[in-house]
Amino acid sequence: MKPNESSFVRAIDVGYGATKFVTAPRSNNGDLTCDFFPSVALPVTQSGLQSIGRQADVYEVPVGDVNYLVGKEIALRQDKSKFGREIGNNFSSTPGYQALTKGALRYIGLPHIDVLSLGLPVNLFLMQERVEELRNTYTGTIDLGQNHKVSVDRVMVYPQPMGGWLDSASNIRALNEVLKASGGREFSGADEFINENNVLVVDPGEYTLDWLVMRQGVVKEDSSGARTDSGRYRILQDVASALNNTERIDVPESRYEELDHAVNNGKPFKLAGQLHDLTKYKTVVDNTVSEQLRRMIPVLRGVEDTIDMIILVGGRSDLYIGELQKLFPNRPIYNPKNAIFSNVRGFQWSAEMFQKKAAMA
Question: Which domain does 261 fall in, by range?
Answer without folding.
Answer: 231-285
